[in-house]
Each structure stands twice: as structure tokens, then as C-alpha cells.
Amino acid sequence: MSKKLHIDVRPMTTIIANLGLTSTDINGMICARNASEVATVIVSDCVDAWTKHTNMIEGDDETPLRNYNKKKAFIMPGSHITADRMKQELREHKITVTNNVSDADIFITNANTFTNTHGELLPLRMPMFSIKNGYSITEFEIGQRKCEFINKWMEDNGIGHVLWDSGVAESLSSDLHSSEYDSLPYDTYVYTGLALEILDRLQNGNAETVFEDRVLIESPNMQPLTKDLLDTVLQMYNAGGDDMELLTKILPTIQGDTNHHLIWKMFGTIQEYQFGTRNKDLQHWFRQMDAHSYNRLSPEDFITHYDAIGELTKEGFKYMEPLCRKEIHISNRDLYVFKVEIKPEYREKYLKK
Q1: Given a cut of 80, is residue 295 above it in pLDDT?
Q2: CA distance 52 to 171
Q3: What are the residue ranges spanned by the domains of the chain?
Q4: pLDDT digits (tens, 9 = 90+) for 48-93
Q5: How do 128-132 and 114-117 pair as beta strands?
Q6: Do 110 and 86 contact (CB within 8 A), yes or no?
């Protein structure tokens, strides 16, 4: 077994039965945009099984990574993190990467393991996906070379239906209306051979899942944002050029769960679009850090928000409170004397020694 996504599902009848998949059928799927490859997939209309399986394959068993010392990990397709970085981080936990499903002790999952399609364009790199109101072809247009290739494949392999994918229409020089087709169930759930193999391992308790973000969160290479590091980050950002390029390597190592006041300060300056890069790790870091949520917070909003969720520290309060005080505006100063005091509940929690 390898990391190949489209594995023939026909020999997997036992796995399919053990997974509790009912009302299933074997369909073909054109698994290359140039219509040069066709593979088999399982289609089902069983929503209960689909819900169970998507939770399994996208979940996290929450076992600390240190417990997987000398274990093997299989990285699920669709990761937001580059393969090089993921392998590096897993090595720090003494975990090796394997492309063999049957060897894997853990599966590194992500939010792209499955998807729901509302149109006719099918995802080619998803282990599982659902189709709403789709079609399956019983015979492609006669006379077109690539259509004839798929028709022959269907005949040779005893496959009665191939999922319609509008993404290959141009390559086929054909369209849905030129072919013979049936309607799929309104909600159709599609499993590739790789998905079935992985679900079988998880179902039998032979492996566990770890969501990819936790590999980074628990990494010894991650660092909190300190005042000194913040100064360095802002200097490099303002310098641009080579410093900016180096910064793309530093930022993804900054933790997002400590020193929120310094992160707020950082995101008040740095902007993702200024990097002009398609660096996958940097993009994932910006999403994970939720930079926009910091930008939406005024100093007072920051204090009330992080106090409400129990993550406001004394350092954070003392950093943000003077900024709040600057935003106080008082008129009629010639007639009145004003005294500004911090509310007792905040003074008691964050200023009392």
C-alpha cells in the first residue's frame, strides 16, 4: 500500500463491509484533468456512515506526540504545511514519515481530507468527497478518441457508471449532454481506495490521528514572541529585501498561545500581502494565528476579550491599559476636575501584587 490516492476498490469488499458502508456501488472516476487515467471509487448514499468516517479521518486522538517516540506517521493529502517542514517537525518528536498506510502508527490529518462539491467539478486530490445533485455516465460520446478510451475501460472492467466531472469536458472534447447518463442520489458520498485503507486502519484500532496544527504547537522548534523577538521582527519587516525573506522562515516558528499583547502589536504592523510570497508555511501560520482577529481589537476590546476567555495576563493588562487611557477624551476642562480610575475588578486581578 502506498500514498497513491486512487487505488482499485474492487478487492476491498471486506473493508467496505467492516466500515458499515451500505447502499454502495463501484463507479469509475476520471482521475486526471487530461482524461488519461480512470480509477474505481466507492459511492454511497449513507449519511450516517459518512459522518462517522469524516470525523474519524479528520479528527485528533489528542495523544501527546512524545508518546509516539520511534513511531511512523503517514501525512494525509491536502496538508497546509509543506512536506519538508512537516518531516522536520516530526523528526524532532523522533517520528519518521512513511508512505505506506499499513506501516503507519499515526495519520497526520488536516482540514482538506474531504470536501463537499456543489457543482460538477470533482476534486482529484481528496481522499473523500461528497457530490450534491450529480450525474454518472453510462456511455461517453461515441466517436471521440478519449471518450472511446473510457468506454472501453468500462467494458473491459465491468464498470457500469463513471462519475461525471465537468473539469475534463474540454479534454474529452465532449460534454454531459452528448453522453448517456443517470442521476446520482442527491447526496452522494465518494471514497477513494486510499480513504478506505486509512479508515480500515483507524476502525481496527491499529493507528491514531493527529491534526497537523498540533505537530507545530508541540514542536520544540516553536518559540514565544518576546519583546526582543518582536523588535527583531519589526526591524526586519521594515528593512525589507533579504531581511523580509528571512522573516518568512522566522514567523512560522512563533507560537500563537502566549503573549497575546505582543502578537497584537506585531499584527498592527506586519501584513501578509506585503510578503508577496506563496510560501505555504507562512500562509498557514497567518491563518492559524488569525491575524485579522487581532486587527479588529482596540486596546479596550483586547482587555475585555482576553479577560473574558481567561487568557489576559498581568503583563498584557499593563501593556494595553496605558493605550486605553490615551483614548479617553474629556471636554469642559476649565470647569471640572476629573479623576480616572481603573475598575476595582481589573485592579484586583491585574495590578495587585
Answers
A1: yes
A2: 36
A3: 10-217, 227-295, 299-350
A4: 999 999 999 888 998 989 899 999 999 999 888 999 999 999 999 9
A5: parallel
A6: no
